[in-house]
Amino acid sequence: MQRRGSNWAYSGWLIILFFVMLLSGVAGYAATGLQSSNFTYDWLFRNIYTPLGSTLYAITGFYIFSAAYRAFRARNIDAALMLIAGCFVIMKNAPVGEAIWTGFADVGSWFQLTGQVPGMRTFSLVGALGMLAYGFRALLGKERGFYAGVGEE
Amino acid sequence: MSESIWSKLGAIDRRVFYWILFVGLMVPFLSPIGLPVRISPNTKDLWDGINPPHVEQGNIAIINFGYGVSAWSECHPGVTVCAKALFRNGVKVIFMGPHYDVDLTMARLQDTVSEDFAGKEYGVDWVYLGYITGGETAISQLANDMRSIFPTDAYGTPLDDIPMMRDVNTYAEIDLVLSSDTGDWGDYFLRQWQSTYGTRLAEVGIAMLASSMVPYYLAGNLFGLSVGSRGGAELEALIGEPGDATVSMDSIILSHILLVLAIVLANIGYFATRGREG
Question: How many CB atoms lie within 10 A of CB B24?
Fold first, then answer.
């Protein structure tokens, strides 16, 4: 805000709302001794935060739709396979898919319940083994970046 | 000429897509489509697992609200059906949640399952413990000493003063856990309850969690799995009471078709343009 960068007014609005929520919550707690049943805070939460939260989540659908047209290109065989699998799963999730062709549901379910599973299992196992290795290194003092800062001796 | 068409198509302003999707999503509200949904095996297993003979009167279940308001559309219909089924089967339910919206979600559930709550007594048939924080450590501790995490319920009543909770303090008194999540809380229950003590566990998650949860379902760690709004609609079909998820299926039909069309159209354009360039 001090630098008056672009959209600085939104930063100001953010800080104002931060204190509005904070003060309404603290004042309600001081008055009633209850963390819930605070009318002002509840009203702000239910009528402003709740619809905004739902809207924010829903907006991602619009971005994905636009991104699907602009970015989801079968530029190589890997991307093509992923796109095809994705399309089958999408059509499997929408009831119209099986209405058009029952194979959408069968193939989509196969991708979801069988095709992707080896990859996910490998991902989980490798992640777990990586954490074990990291844990050992941390215990032996060879992995100090996390708590001592990178490059500090 | 055709190349210029693909070039123009490729340069469509993104706001055009927003409007196409917006108008497309309006159509089902004006003219519902109402196509039937096929029940997935994972959803059927979840349904079977919360009904006799897998549960019996007097069992105690935990329903964990690991989602906030923003994911109500995906998680809440499934949780609603599960709560209805558990109540109707005489199962006592402990509600709790690690999301700061948990009070709102509990209130929403009492609204969507109002008829079933009306026939149940607080403290005898169900209890609301409220917000839990502390991540996986807290879930682990919850299995061994619930009172160390929740000395009181969400309304300040000590657990010892709640009839249903008098003899409940560890995993041993809990018959099943349903975790509904946008994040990792289902994993915490899986690692700290299911794989450690063998507690029956099911997941009612957002669609994005499907890929990470399916391996656990196939391995038998989860006795059932509901995936997103689609899973909610399947559960509503199984209980025979269409609700929010069934309604949302119409919007999903339109949005998914538009999404696939966008992908197909874009790739036709991509290959047509690339072929000419090559």
Answer: 16
